[in-house]
Amino acid sequence: MKKHLIIGSSGRMYQPNKGEYLFADDIALEDVEATYPVGELEGNAVSVKIIRRGAPIPYEKAELRPLLATSRNEQEYLVLSRATQLITWHNEHRFCGRCGAKMHHHAEDLAKHCGQCDLVQYPRISPCVIVLVVDGDRCLLARSPRFPPGRFSTLAGFIEAGETAEAAVHREIKEEVGIDVKNVRYARSQSWPFPHSLMLGFYADYAGGELKPDGIEIEEAHWYTRDTLPDLPPSFAISYALIEPFIKGEPV
């Protein structure tokens, strides 16, 4: 089996050529701090090699969104997602969150271990809900101030401590746009490496209330039919995957 590498440092991924991110396995770089396996592509093993912070790297920083947008298949998307999340985790957990001592690689697990207080820190995963609310032949799409001009998407938010995913759906929608929903049903999930989320996708039916965007997370929210849809998220995003069946008139 051939091997390929992805290079990361200081929380960022690097590329040998614009639009490319895979390196040959014989690349020679000094100051390597860690190497983590991240999966396979077309039968070839792929690992991420992380270079010490501040060390010179003769490559350009990669932009993750364009790389994900041009992923050839789901496997490539997963490899990129896992790699960038491990790069972020390695960069943000160099020291123990309990005592402040330097963290070291765990002897057996994909984790970091503090030799001073014995804390074990695994890669962080932040669960979120993302929801398409439907009401007959219309769906609810909203706009965040962070979106490109004209872009609308599904509603989303982080799951709070002690909360179920379904409860988070009800709470987030009520907080962000002021309406109630019912018949919450799971659809699919997607690793979302911005920087370390796991998106849990749901559908929900409108149950009542008037749309009132909170003005902070959501600046606009409207009901749309299949013939009046605005600019939508990119095709690689789970938000688009939730909207696509509605566009096609399929049951959701």
Offer a quick outline of the entry:
With 252 residues, the protein is α+β, with helices and mostly antiparallel strands. 19% of the residues lie in helices and 37% in strands.
C-alpha end-to-end distance: 42 Å
Radius of gyration: 21 Å
N-to-C series of helices and strands? EEEEEEHHEEEEEEHEEEH
In helices, the fraction of residues equals: 10-25%
The chain-level structural class is: alpha+beta
Helix tally equals 4
- Model regions low in confidence, pLDDT < 50 over at least 5 residues: none
Number of strands: 15
The fraction of residues assigned to DSSP E strands is 35-45%
Tell me, rounded to a whole number, the average pLDDT: 95
Q: Based on CA inertia axes, which overall geometry fits?
A: globular
Query: How does the major sheet shape up?
Result: 6 strands, mixed
Explain what this protein looks like in three dimensions.
The strands form three sheets. Strands 1, 2, 3, 4, 5 and 6 form a six-stranded mixed β-sheet that branches. Strands 10, 11, 12, 13, 14 and 15 form a six-stranded mixed β-sheet that branches. A three-stranded antiparallel β-sheet has the order 7-8-9, with no helix packed on it. The chain has four helices and 15 strands. A hairpin with a 2-residue loop joins strand 1 (3-9) and strand 2. Helix content is 19%, strand content 37%. The protein has helices at 64-69, 74-92, 165-177, 238-247, and strands spanning 3-9, 12-15, 23-24, 32-41, 44-51, 60-61, 103-105, 112-114, 120-121, 126-135, 138-143, 155-158, 180-192, 197-208, 220-225. With 252 residues, it is an alpha+beta fold.
